[in-house]
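thought: user wants a sequence for this fold. calling inverse folding tool.
action: design(structure=
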């Protein structure tokens, strides 16, 4: 089968289209014929070696497809079932051997591409808005990169809760998408100082929560726009890592809270995983969450997908089609 392997970390040239055997399922695994593989920022960090994996590895963590073989100890999943996943390494490929207890069944009304697009970013938007800082009606959230993969989903969920959403984006095109997803205000943070603007928009009160996936270029100012005892939820570093930070600033800036969460800890058990995925699928079925699969690429063009994501050219979700 074809797969995108990383033999040595590096630039996009490290993504090597190669031929490897179709995997056989071990006892508790199933083998899935992949319909769509999700592209996520974490794939870039792994390719670069910022997040280290044993070499060589097949890139990609997310996808959807149809079960073609089932290990002897598997129950509850059978050949022909449509499944989806996040956090299983080796998803930039035609087939994947996956632990059965880390898969979710895809409901009939959700197509393969939507399922692949919903898993990692959908569950992330869900845990951020419902658990890390459970947003309430009438509160105000500042969401950076509001037209990105996680961003567009988080904006919709926050809007559906009844929160006021201030989004930041780099272009007018992205601003239109963020507004369409439910952002009440959009700041072009590449042209306007988002700290000044957010203070203005909240009448100096500040926001209840900042959801920050951009990191290096936004973190410091984000602390300045929080209300006293507000929440900084730093969940990524698309612009680079946040440098070391003196905790006394939290006291000086209003007894703030800060957390650096990651999806895995919100889907530790199979039950947690399936409940959270179901919550996202239910939102899709109810017409409350729209997935924007804006960019699809043949598997062989994984490098182009990474280049586009890194260059801030994309909106919504990127998928590779094996
Ligand atoms: P996005 O689609 O959000 O792409 C990244 C966006 O970040 C860009 O489109 C761009 O939006 C913005 N950005 C700002 N500065 C830069 C820069 N210097 N270089 C590149 N992009 C920049 O990606 P994802 O939705 O896949 O992921 C978003 C972030 O969330 C990543 O940092 C990822 O690691 C993190 N993440 C964290 C998870 C967790 O559980 N902790 C789970 C999932 C994702 P604009 O042009 O509008 O500025």
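)
observation: tool returned 322 residues.
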């Amino acid at each position: 089968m074809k797969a995108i392997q990383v033999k040595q970390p590096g630039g996009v040239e490290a993504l090597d289209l190669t031929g490897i055997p179709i995997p056989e399922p071990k006892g508790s695994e199933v083998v899935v014929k992949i319909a769509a593989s999700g592209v996520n920022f974490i794939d870039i960090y792994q390719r670069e070696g910022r997040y280290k994996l044993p070499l060589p590895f097949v890139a990609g963590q997310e996808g959807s497809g149809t079960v073609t073989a089932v290990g002897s100890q598997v129950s509850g999943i059978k050949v022909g079932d449509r499944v989806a996943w996040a956090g299983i390494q080796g998803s930039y490929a035609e087939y994947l051997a996956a632990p059965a207890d880390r898969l979710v069944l895809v409901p009939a009304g959700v197509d393969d591409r939507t399922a692949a697009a919903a898993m990692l970013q959908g569950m992330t938007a869900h845990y951020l808005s419902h658990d890390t800082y459970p947003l309430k009606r009438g509160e105000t959230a500042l969401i950076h990169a509001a037209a990105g993969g996680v961003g567009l989903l988080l904006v919709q969920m926050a809007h559906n809760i009844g929160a006021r959403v201030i989004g930041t984006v780099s272009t007018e095109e992205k601003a239109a998408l963020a507004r369409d997803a439910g952002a009440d205000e959009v700041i072009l943070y590449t042209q306007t100082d988002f700290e000044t603007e957010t203070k203005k928009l909240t009448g100096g009160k500040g926001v209840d929560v900042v959801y920050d996936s951009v990191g290096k270029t936004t973190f410091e100012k984000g602390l300045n726009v929080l209300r006293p005892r507000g929440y900084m939820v730093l969940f990524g570093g698309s612009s680079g890592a946040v440098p070391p930070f003196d905790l006394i600033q939290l006291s000086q800036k209003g007894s703030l809270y800060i957390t650096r969460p990651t999806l895995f800890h919100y889907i530790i058990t199979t039950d947690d995983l399936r409940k959270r995925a179901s919550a996202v699928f239910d939102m899709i079925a109810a017409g409350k969450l729209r997935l924007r699969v804006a960019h699809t690429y043949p598997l062989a063009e994984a490098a182009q997908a990474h280049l586009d994501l890194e260059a801030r050219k994309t909106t919504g979700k990127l998928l590779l089609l094996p």
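thought: summarizing for user.
answer: Here is the designed sequence. The chain has two domains: 2-120+267-321, 137-260.
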